[in-house]
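[SOLVED] Need 3D model of a two-part complex

Original post:
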Amino acid sequence: MSDIDLLFLSKNDMDSLNLSLSEIIQTIDQGLIAHGQKKVIMPSKSHLVLDFPNKLFNILKGYVEPVDAAGVKIIGDFHDNYQYGFPSEFAMLNLYDPKTGRPIAIVDATLITWMRTGAVTALGAKYLACDKPRVLGHIGARGTSWYNVRMLDLLFDFEEIRVTSKRPESRERFAAALSAELDREIRVMESTKDTVRDADIIIDASRLLDHQVLVADSDVKPGAHLQAYGAVLSVEPSLPFTVDKFVVDDWNQCKISPYGQFADLVQKGELQDEHVYGEIGEIAAGLKPGRESPTERNLFWHKGFAVSDIMLGMLAVKKAAELGVGTTLRYFTQAQDM
Amino acid sequence: MSDIDLLFLSKNDMDSLNLSLSEIIQTIDQGLIAHGQKKVIMPSKSHLVLDFPNKLFNILKGYVEPVDAAGVKIIGDFHDNYQYGFPSEFAMLNLYDPKTGRPIAIVDATLITWMRTGAVTALGAKYLACDKPRVLGHIGARGTSWYNVRMLDLLFDFEEIRVTSKRPESRERFAAALSAELDREIRVMESTKDTVRDADIIIDASRLLDHQVLVADSDVKPGAHLQAYGAVLSVEPSLPFTVDKFVVDDWNQCKISPYGQFADLVQKGELQDEHVYGEIGEIAAGLKPGRESPTERNLFWHKGFAVSDIMLGMLAVKKAAELGVGTTLRYFTQAQDM
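Solution:
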């Protein structure tokens, strides 16, 4: 019998850890490599849908051998939360000792989700974009976008960054924040077409309620790298079939989880195993080549997976211990089996 | 923008709420009725299996209209935890506002799981056992068993209570605790056969690692009510087919979740829709009759569902507010969409 404590890290605690963009990217890369090397256990995410696509929870779970931790993230996707001044995604990550199932930490994962999604975006581009991409076209202005653009620019130092989003006030606010942070010009575009046409890297982080084509097949030039990861199809449905490489994060999850950008195509049986070049982890682990020619058009679909959350959650727990950040909660006094 | 707090209830906090057995049973009954009336959203539980059946997590999620709350419970099932002096099931329940996905509480659900399982056991017997059952035969001595026996005895005031479990020290300890609590004789049996034979109510709360027959078909007398809910088949596999009524808690979940007492029979296609009389919620809601004759043999398989956890979690949150129990955590300061 012994007391059991666990660590609580709030959104503010997470902010105060000041994780650097580069250490986040490096940590997420280690997770991708572990995934590619099959050193993870990760069933598909599951869902609790109150009102699709407006009100749902996604539940991600996994185990990552290199950090010897299991974790479960519960993340809301509530499209109308901006009306309350809330983020659309509240997320919490529970981390566990895989020997006993004892919880070791409860970590705000709102920030983790933004960070790890941005890092996967950046790493996707690292492995799949052309050498020295000049122009980034970015659709979307929510939490993940803030990390996408900064991490991509850290890797590539673009000549031109174009951003757009549905609501003028959100794209203006987003561009102003980016411009101040990166100390450079950010072009705010009114149309998605002007944003993405002939860009070297196109990131579609939109969150539609109904299918619309924000990225046409013809807007993706030879040599371009495209990513699209919204819950609703927002690019031309031909794209997974016409690109030279279609890469996913976890194909098993893509086949099981019924939501996400190309999920309908998978469910209908049109998008099949044969269309998938590989998983980003296989490329990160060096098991498959990434981009192979300057004119290659490729597309990376990431639904997001628990491995990334667990990697960043464990980094946060380690940092928090070093810095004395967080609240220690007494979970059990004198734990025992009844 | 506003600050967001949430309530943390530890195992000790849960203990200090002193929820009465009768209010727990009543609350769980309301959940069963809501389930029967289809006033819930409840996809199947899902699983993160590290090493079956020794090390896994079960993840239960749902929404319950009458209490207007969504919830996700993550519960470990780590068979060897007694070696560390730990409960085999550490569990945490997150409760959410279904309008925004905002977390409202993180509640230890180790106790909730024991309580709600005991209450479902008791309610199953209330609807399906014979009038004035005299003899209870109970297999198992872990957390849920402690609630099973006390709640059943509250409803039925048995003439004879027999208990057994695999390890002599655990059954002796269990019986001594029960005897002190109920101020009555508890018969400790060495064999499962002697425990269950000719009992009016047979509860098999065993946790096997491999299939064994602890309850033979012939030990279930006419008029007996049987429940079996371990993760591994522990009763004679003929039973779902030979009883007069085979009742489940949620048939959809029984078909999807691949673990539990009769799951193999379902997966193999042997146990089918036609064999299921109904769900306990339909009986609780008065949509189908429970027991219909004194000689009816019936079997209730409950895998456990999120509706029960959410009902009891919301009761705990309400009680905690009344009593000033728990720790308020600042989750977000000045929440906003980024």
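Edit: Residues 45 and 60 of chain A are 4 Å apart (CA to CA).
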